[in-house]
Write a structure and sequence with these properties.
InterPro entries: ATP_grasp_subdomain_1 (IPR013815), PEP-util_enz_mobile_dom (IPR008279), PEP_util_C (IPR000121), Phosphohistidine_dom_sf (IPR036637), Pyruvate_phosphate_dikinase (IPR010121), Pyrv/PenolPyrv_kinase-like_dom (IPR015813), Pyrv_kinase-like_dom_sf (IPR040442). This protein is an alpha/beta fold and about 850 residues long. The protein contains 33 helices and 30 strands. It binds phosphoenolpyruvate and magnesium ion (MG).
């Protein structure tokens, strides 16, 4: 036997690599090592195929001499990664007039003619490149059909159909090698992530013929269900068939296992069936993977043609990995590494069925994963009204504001024209697990006229149905088929293993008791950010809040805050109870006050009525609070220092709630976080007030309690001056949403408009609101962390911007020595797994 590494018979110790001969060749070798019944096969390396494409054909006779001269052959692609595709397999090479005669004696003349016909057809189309239409009028009778196909071939090619197997094989190899080099194939595989120089290997295999006397046929079989991962024999088998016939539908496939509904492979070929099962179990154990076998039965005898990794969705992937580890076939760490953290989204949210046709109206930023179908509405009120009628709505807004929150809760999905990964709609959507597409600016939004115009001119009116795919950032026309979310025991087991190896904690951003419950269910280790302003949008509170904003004297303001105090106390006590003593980090009030006021004239009039004030006074106050750039204006700690009563009320509510739940047996050390700090003196001032409220509560109640004060680092200056700030506090948490906004000078609410163009042009490698910018923003984090730890080694460090749920960003935080990351509740499992993978 010729020992050539580029053209080699597959034997247990032949020099074959997936990176030189492709995945199929490597896998066949693994099967050969297991002594499984694979037909003799020759692997041609990437290099051999490159040479063939360039016109340098190896000696076919030498190649054929290694195989049975009476056998038919097939050639199949073997690329490095099977997802990259490859030319179609060509079967029945070696078929000729003479072979038809010989084979006819064995399998019957009709079956032999069908094989010959099949070869002539595929050779004509894929090798000689004849137009498939030419074979349209094929007669039904196999003999006539064969004569017809041979005639068409001869007429078009002006040559007799080649009868020499060496010629046939050479031509097949040449055409497959060239097809790989074609522009379409190249573009297709590059779109799937293949490198420009991805190689193609080919395997030439002796065929087991699935046609003939006795039980003959072909099929595929696996031991698990590809959608759930449950142990279940699945696949297809078709008698008198070959190749992937059984998969092409149309003809009636048989059951694999014995089944009352009809004949099965198990009954027709019991021995072959039993062998298949045992081979698959062996493959699972030895190849450490759930495999699908491609097989042929020839007169009841089993031949394995190939074994491929079972195709699977995310849910099945989790359950397969867990089962392999539980059976001791792979270590737990490997099971953890086999799951792409983001794929867990598929288990946590409903998704558009990946096999369904998609009628895409437009694309935007995939701001919150999951999918939902609903009728479009253009106002929060319409969404609430529809919800009351039990209708599912998609809330469509140019952008959302705090006033839309209740409407958002009542919608099944959100679509906005503006915004990016950290805009209001995106943050709320992720927080409550609502599918959300933002920045869909290719759609024309005419919210006043209540219509949308898609880029292709289609017009949608209020009440028309769309499906929002927040996982892929697509808006689909009408009702798309959805797959339910579903996680099972395997998911919980995998998460448990992740927690065992993980060395950075994961908390959740949670603002309301509902969020906190979700965070707790996803086993977050506490709350890393409670945005207290989100507690003020409930109708009754909003009214008191507005009274507070309109108070003209300090006494009036105090009276309004006095009414807010018990509400906040109850909010915090609820959070503490739900989190059962785990850390809860409460951020003091952050947004500018004007966000709590109505923005239009009708709203002003309503407010004037409610507060019993003249309209002009309301309008003046709204105008007085207006700012040119509210994001950089009177908000956060600036408000805390200039209107200190708000923070004092909140801090008192936190302390009183702490004492309240302590009475119920829930021990908690609350964390109080000051937002938007840029100078250490700000911290000093707020700290002084917090300490005096603590002293007051202690002396009023005669009870002691502990708390931790910290700072949210979300301005570049706070990061740079972290050394001054750190000695005054117990923790620093990086708010990378604002920090990204301020470092880039890039509005988080407007970036969606041009972000995809910027990323496409390579200006930014990724949306920096989504993946932490390692070159710039992360440097500020490093500087901040280093200076802070140098000044206060006991400091707790964390991240609470949206990046906290992003696997790449978590890697940075872990390397920088952070104690925890905090992200939206639905992203907690993703973060737990991503963090675990870093520690494996
Ligand atoms: C931040 O700025 O990173 C943050 C977490 O706060 P918010 O998104 O509320 O501004
Ligand atoms: Mg912020």
């Amino acid at each position: 036997m010729q020992q050539d590494t580029d053209i080699t018979l597959i034997t247990p110790d032949a020099p074959i690599g997936a990176d030189t001969h492709g995945g199929r060749a490597k896998c066949l070798q693994r099967l050969a090592r297991l002594n499984l019944p694979i037909p003799p096969t020759i692997a041609l390396s990437f290099k051999a195929i490159q040479r063939i494409a360039a016109g340098d054909m190896p000696d076919m006779r030498a190649l054929l001499s290694q195989l049975d001269e009476h056998a038919l052959l097939c050639v199949r692609p073997s690329s490095e990664d099977s997802d990259w595709g490859g030319p179609r397999a060509v079967l029945n090479i070696g078929m000729s007039g003479a072979m038809c005669e010989t084979l006819g004696a064995r399998i019957g003349p009709e079956a032999a003619k069908r094989l010959y016909l099949r070869f002539v057809e595929s050779y004509a189309i894929h090798v000689a490149r004849l137009d498939p239409d030419m074979l349209d009028d094929m007669p039904g009778d196999p003999e006539d059909a064969l004569a017809f196909a041979l005639r068409v071939y001869e007429d078009e090619v002006e040559e007799a159909f080649p009868q020499d197997p060496a010629v046939q094989l050479a031509e097949v190899l040449r055409s497959m090698a060239r097809a790989w080099d074609g522009t379409t194939a190249r573009l297709l595989r590059q779109a799937k992530g293949a490198p420009a120089d991805a190689g193609l290997g080919l395997v030439v295999q002796e065929m087991a013929i699935g046609l003939g006397r006795g039980e003959c046929g072909s099929g595929v079989m696996q031991l698990v269900n590809s959608k759930s991962g449950a142990r279940q024999i699945t696949g297809r088998y078709l008698s008198q068939s070959q190749g992937r016939d059984a998969l092409s539908g149309g003809k009636e496939a048989l059951y694999l296992e014995r089944d009352p509904r009809g004949p099965s492979l198990e009954e027709l070929a019991p021995e072959a069936f039993a062998q298949l099962k045992s081979h698959l179990s062996e493959m699972r154990e030895k190849l450490r993977e759930e495999m699908q076998a491609e097989f042929t039965i020839e007169n009841g005898k089993l031949h394995l043609l190939d074994g491929v990794r079972v195709a699977r969705n995310a849910r099945a992937a989790v359950s397969i990995a867990v089962a392999l580890a539980e059976d001791g076939i792979i270590p737990r760490e490997e099971a953890l590494m086999r799951i792409e953290p983001r794929a867990l989204n598929e288990l946590l949210h409903r998704q558009v069925d990946p096999e369904a046709k998609r009628d895409v109206l437009a694309r935007g930023v995939a701001a919150s994963p999951g999918a939902a179908t609903g009728k479009i509405v253009f106002t929060a009120e319409a969404s609430q009204a529809a919800a009351a009628r039990g209708e599912a709505t998609v809330l469509v807004r140019r952008e959302t504001t705090s006033e839309d929150i209740r409407g958002m809760h009542d919608a099944v999905a959100i679509l906005t024209e503006r915004g990016g990964m950290t805009s209001h709609a995106a943050v709320i959507g992720r927080g409550i697990g609502l599918p959300c597409v933002v920045g869909a600016s290719s759609i024309r939004f005419q919210t006043a006229a209540r219509k949308l115009t898609a880029p292709d001119g289609r017009i949608l009116k209020e009440g028309d149905e769309v499906t929002i795919d927040g996982t892929n950032g697509e808006v689909l026309f009408g009702r798309a088929p959805l797959l339910d979310a579903g996680h099972d025991d395997s998911f919980q087991v995998l998460m448990g293993w992740a927690d065992d190896v993980r060395d950075i904690a994961v908390r959740a951003n949670a603002d309301t008791p509902m969020d906190a419950q979700m965070a707790h269910n996803f086993q977050a280790e506490g709350i890393g950010l409670c945005r207290t302003e989100h507690m003020f949008f409930e109708e009754a509170r909003l009214r008191v809040m507005r009274e507070m904003i309109f108070a003209s004297t300090s006494a009036d303001r105090a009276a309004a805050l006095e009414r807010l105090l018990p509400m906040q106390r109850a909010d915090f006590a609820d959070l503490f109870r739900i989190m059962k003593g785990q850390s809860v980090c409460i951020r003091l009030f952050d947004p500018p006050l004007h966000e709590f006021l109505p923005s239009d004239r009708a709203g002003h009039r309503e407010l004037a009525e409610a507060l019993d004030l003249p309209l002009s006074k309301v309008t003046r106050r709204v105008e007085a609070l207006a700012e040119y750039n509210p994001m950089l204006g009177m908000r956060g700690v600036r408000l805390g220092i200039t209107v200190p009563e708000i923070y004092e009320m909140q801090v008192r509510a936190i302390f009183e709630a702490t004492l309240q739940v302590a009475g119920e047996g829930v021990e908690i050390v609350p964390e109080i976080m000051i937002p938007l700090v840029s100078a250490s003196r700000e911290v000093e001032l707020v700290k002084g007030r917090v300490d005096s409220v603590a002293a007051a509560v202690r002396s009023e109640t005669g009870r002691d309690f502990a708390f931790r004060l910290g700072v949210m680092v979300e301005t570049p200056r706070a990061a740079l001056r972290a050394g001054d700030i750190a000695p005054q506090v117990a923790f620093l948490s990086f708010g990378t949403n604002d920090l990204t906004q301020m470092t880039y000078g890039l509005s988080r609410d407007d970036a969606g408009r041009f972000m995809s163009e910027y990323v496409q042009l390579g200006v930014y490698p990724e949306d920096p609101f989504h993946t932490l910018d390692l070159d710039g923003v992360a440097e500020l984090l490093s500087i901040g962390a280093e200076r802070a730890r140098a000044a206060n080694p006991n400091l707790t460090l964390s991240i609470c911007g949206e990046h906290g749920g992003n696997p790449e960003s978590i890697a940075f935080c872990r390397a920088a020595g952070f104690d925890y990351v905090s992200c939206s509740p639905f992203r907690v499992p993703v973060a737990r797994l991503a963090a675990a993978q870093l520690a494996v």
